[in-house]
Amino acid sequence: MKSYIILSVFLLFGWNMLFAQIPSTQWVLEQKNVAWEPRDSQGEVVYNGYMWILGGWYDSYSPPPRDVWKSKDGKNWELVSEQAPWEHSDLPMSLVFKDKMWMMGGWYNGRLEGRSASNRVWSSKNGKNWSLVTEKAGWSARCAAATVSFKGKMWILGGTSAYYYGGKDSLLNDVWYSEDGKNWTLATAKAAWSPRAFHQAVVFNDRIYVMGGGNYDPEYFGFNDVWSSSDGIHWREEVSNASWHERIWFSSIVFRDCIWVIGGWSGNPYKNWGDIWYSQNGKEWRELKTDGPTWKERHEHSAFVFQDKLWIAGGMTPPLVNDVWSLILSEKW
Questions:
Q1: DSSP letter at 170?
Q2: What is the pLDDT of residues 139-185, one digit of tens each?
Q3: Any idea what the CATH number is for the domain that residue 298 is in?
Q4: By three-state DSSP, how is residue 50 classified?
Q5: CA distances from 113 to 6, 139, 148, 288 (A)
Q6: DSSP 238-260
């Protein structure tokens, strides 16, 4: 009888202890308040062994910040430049291409007089010294476009020429590419997906995927469709209504052989989103459920894939925040 009781206790507690040691899927708060001032709509890249934050937005009635920060652990951030030469750092297009960081387009001065979009292209190898590659790219001045590096070229997809007060007429669905950042070629003036801004694009399975986005001012509308292309010209609709709610101002990345959609904002219902979705084909989507504490719902945050982890930083909850979180995936991944 005693041996039966001992065996039962072991089976109950021993196995529980064993499984308790297997990491669950959870978010880790790396730092509640990092060195850079709370913000959203910043540029972000992973480059040369660091996560980088570039400019962003503080409010609609002051010029956007022009600072540059980097971190190799998410906790400690180093100020690389306090005043970079680019001015249009609200909703810019940022990426890494040919061993350089690039900042393109963007918005300046919020709702103030003199507000404008840009089609300037800047590059840097260290974040401190920036070169103006071109004053006027082939594509029209814009912000909130999607950008990817694909088949040895940089690509710009859609966006808006007038962040505030622009409406539908300011939205774009053209696609451009460049091998050097200076000379740009129009792939298509009107892609199959409808004109939009605040969307996302990723490269996955040797195709460009465009998803979500819409318009904010003066009238909100959002999408939750997903499109893909092997050449930037011919597009196929993967799904017209994905499982995640339509939204703008979200993040999307490729991580562990999946496309991920993270957070964002919608006007119907009027709310921030704190969900995270993933897909292996762009058609079927599953929501990731995590254990323990998580980040507050937000939009226009940064997302990184760094050191085999998924990271998010900053954004508008409200208020603006400057926290940094990383995701630990369970062993099933």
A1: G
A2: 999 999 999 999 999 999 999 999 988 889 999 999 999 999 999 99
A3: 2.120.10.80
A4: strand
A5: 78, 24, 32, 43
A6: EESS-SSPPBBS-EEEEETTEEE
